[in-house]
Structures are given as structure tokens and as C-alpha cells.
Design a protein that fits this description.
The structure holds two protein chains of two kinds.
Chain A (H helix, E strand, L loop, with lengths): L3 E4 L2 E4 L5 E7 L5 E8 L3 E10 L2 E4 L7 E2 L9 E3 L8 E8 L7 E2 L3 E5 L1
Parallel strand pairs in A: 2-11
Antiparallel strand pairs in A: 1-3, 3-8, 4-5, 4-9, 5-6, 7-8, 9-10, 9-11
Chain B lengths: L2 E3 L4 E5 L4 E3 L2 E3 L5 E7 L5 E7 L5 E3 L5 E5 L4 E6 L8 E8 L5 E3 L3 E6 L1
The chains are: A mainly beta, B mainly beta.
Chain lengths: 112, 112
Amino acid sequence: EAQVTQNPRYLITVTGKKLTVTCSQNMNHEYMSWYRQDPGLGLRQIYYSMNVEVTDKGDVPEGYKVSRKEKRNFPLILESPSPNQTSLYFCASSPYPGTEAFFGQGTRLTVV
Amino acid sequence: AQSVTQPDIHITVSEGASLELRCNYSYGATPYLFWYVQSPGQGLQLLLKYFSGDTLVQGIKGFEAEFKRSQSSFNLRKPSVHWSDAAEYFCAVGAGGFKTIFGAGTRLFVKA
């Protein structure tokens, strides 16, 4: 089954404690993205990756890092989380940029 | 700048009634256009997409959308709403380059 898998689904952490949200896709897509969803703001792109070792900033990259060492995996790293990063995060993959996106189930992160 | 506007934050319709969700975009060329649905606690699922050709596109779950270039609109319609259609709906534009821009979403409530 074609899917994008994120883990964990829910996470509560404290300010400053590094965390990683994993994302994996099994569709051999080259393009992957991370979004955050906040009420009234829709989805905003954090980072995207065109292929292995090729990543770039989206609209709201501050406080986040990503890596793309393998085609299927695209982890999101928060080196020092802050309460304003409390949000719902989605990973997505697409065959090509700007085309249909396949989304993971989401990770609800709370930073206290 | 590219943008997507969904004018209605929420809409309530009676079960069996028709539905139209509005979407307007700002983009210089003909974009790729999408509608996604997000059920509670779930990721986003593609309902339908427009790339080119026939401006009336059919999607899953009985939804359709019409691209109107002159109005820069891509409104989503369904002739008869079911209670299971209650969800949040996102219009999105593949705006060239490496990004997809999402609207803020419209939450649909269905009353019996």
C-alpha cells in the first residue's frame, strides 16, 4: 500500500529538548515536504527536498532542520523546541513539486 | 505573490442539501489546482485535481470542481451532502517552482 508514515503521532516535550519526527514514504517519490498546520493559517511549508541531499527552506523554516540521506526518509529536527512550535505537523511526498501530494497522518507536537 | 483564498471559515449545510465551497487564487499562469479533505485526526486526502483540459473535473466521494480562469476560481461542489462529508476542506495551488500553496481551509458542518 502506498503510504507516508510519520512517527510519533503525538509528542509532548519541554522547551529546549531536541526532538526528531520521522517521515518515510514507499512510493519512490523524489519530492518531500514538511508542513505545519495552525488554526486559521492552513498549511505552511517548513522545508522541502527535491532529492537525496537536496533540501531548501519553505515559508517558515526558523527553528527547524531537515536531512535527506535516503530517498524514502525525510526527518524533521527541532534542535531546541520552543512553545511557539506547538502545532500539527505533516510530512508529504509527491512525484514532482507542485503535483498531487500524499500526506502522512500528522504529528501533534506540544512544547511546554 | 501567489495566494489562495477560501472566503468561508466554516459552512453548515443540511444533510441532502447541495454544497459549494469557494476558492480563489492569485497566480500569473495557469496553475495546478487541488482540493484536499481532512477528516478529524487524519492527514489530508486528495479529492480532485486540475492540470489542464476540461475545466469541470470529477473527484472521489461524488465531488466535482470547476476551474474558471476569468474569475481565478476553483470552487468545489457536491449535489447532495452526507453526514460523513463533515470535515475540513483545503484548496491548494501548485504555483510553479517547488511549492504548493494551501488556503486556510473551510470547515464543513452537516446537520441532520
